[in-house]
Amino acid sequence: MKKSLIIILIILLLALSSCNFNTPDSFTGEMNDTKFTHYRQSDGCFSQFIETYKGTYYLANSFVYFSSDGISEYIKLCSRPDCKHNNADCNAYVNSNSIAYYNGYIYYVSIYQGSYWLFRMNMDGTDHINVKELASINERFTGFFEHGYLYFYKGLIGMQGNTDKFIYKTAVYDNGDAEVIADTSDIGEICMFYPQNEYLYFYVYTDEMMYSIYRYSTAKFKWEDPINIKSGPGNVFINTDKVFWYVNGEGFYEYAYETKIIEHVADSIDSGLYGVSYNDEYIYTFQYFETKYSAVSPMLYIFDRQYNLVDSVLIDIKMEDYFSSLYVTELEDIVLISTSILKRPPDYYLVKSEFGSGDITLRKNSN
Questions:
Q1: Inter-residue contact 317 to 339 (CB < 8 Å)
Q2: Full-prediction pTM beyond 0.85?
């Protein structure tokens, strides 16, 4: 009997160790490295993925999942032995559509007592704390995190009838009030915005089937003249100096803020429908299914930043969400792929060391 009890205890300890969310002993870097805290504009998902010094986190169906390296099994962020991990009582449940990391905590916005509130939790999913109230349900809410701050406005992206035209900024690490940092009354109906270092970028849909991108300096409190492009936010990348975008059927474009000149810099891939992600070393162009029951699997093309084709790979797997991106994000050595970005964490990946070999393997994540 005693021997059996010991075996049971060992099994329980092994089970608990598999849900270990503790800090790796080897980490000696900066907890608030900007690669952990910046707004991830290149991701195929919007604010669902975060990279931290502990590992990676992914938000799907209101639950937060954890993977130690992005390709190991993603497990729901809850270690409670009595939890079935399928309802709002689970530590991994956040009832939100975005998550962010800052200074050893995970942050999210959720509805609480008739209002939108900023919440904080530990990186192992414990101790969910309501930090501050942001907006009422009637006012509505849209916001994005970067470097320990939340930028938001009281309305919904792309919806008519948003009466509050101000952009607010609030620190996530205290319960202080939000401050108004921009008035968007003169730029039209916002369909998307996000922070990127000292700037805010706004996408406004125009009458000519184009988007106007406005840039606002949060340091100088100053607007810049907009640029007009034929591409939506999903195919655009912006840094301090340039705007990069892809137009299906036309190709790649660049705009320099200094010269205010738009250049067509490379031709389109083919006649298919593609999403594009710009990263430091590579540009990924990933094909969308044209119909739900398409018999042709989508392609993913890899270009260098000078628009030279490096390699390509057929994503020959069953995609559950044919209408959404298959590309999730790029990490240091891998590219993450998902068969259903909204419903589950990444389940496939590519190894970047194979790029250029002509023989890229699409790998299944560990389970």
A1: yes
A2: yes
